[in-house]
């Protein structure tokens, strides 16, 4: 089983997080701060969730990750969101995004 979480956009690998590598202390601290922030609630397409589950927080984080990648300026924020998702959903192997002219489709691959 792969230890990595890969993010694909239109079948091209855009980002990969290696779960086998230890996280530096500064990254762990930022992830803990994100967790505390998300504990206060998240805005998802179906509305605001005041007490989100781990899965709901991960879905919010995936939205943030994809938004950061779409901006294409600085992948450091995208990398942080990817680390958040990878550490909260350990069975998630890939996030696949397929873009069309007017929308996009996201699929999650577990296992």
Topology overview:
Layout: E1 4-9, E2 12-18, H1 25-39, E3 42-44, E4 47-49, H2 54-71, H3 75-88, E5 92-99, E6 104-110
Parallel strand pairs: 1-5
Antiparallel strand pairs: 1-2, 3-4, 5-6
Helix pairs in contact: 1-3, 2-3
Shape category = globular
* Structure classification: alpha+beta
**Total E-strand runs:** 6
User: Main β-sheet: number of strands, strand sense, barrel status?
Assistant: 4 strands, mixed
User: SSE order, as H and E?
Assistant: EEHEEHHEE
The strand order across the widest sheet is 2-1-5-6
Q: How widely separated are the two ends?
A: 8 Å
The residue ranges in which pLDDT falls below 50 over 5 or more consecutive positions are: none
Rg (C-alpha, Å): 14 Å
Percent strand equals 25-35%
Average of pLDDT: 92
Q: How helical, in percent, are the residues?
A: 40-55%
Distinct helical segment count: 3
Characterization of this structure:
42% of the residues lie in helices and 31% in strands. The protein contains three helices and six strands; from the N terminus they run ββαββααββ. It has helices at 25-39, 54-71, 75-88, and strands spanning 4-9, 12-18, 42-44, 47-49, 92-99, 104-110. Strands 2-1-5-6 form a four-stranded mixed β-sheet, with helices on one face. The chain has a two-stranded antiparallel sheet with strand order 3-4. A hairpin with a 4-residue loop joins β5 and β6 (104-110). α1 crosses α3 (75-88) and α2 (54-71) runs antiparallel to α3 (75-88). The longest helix has 18 residues, at 54-71. The radius of gyration is 14 Å and the shape is globular. It starts with a strand and ends with a strand.
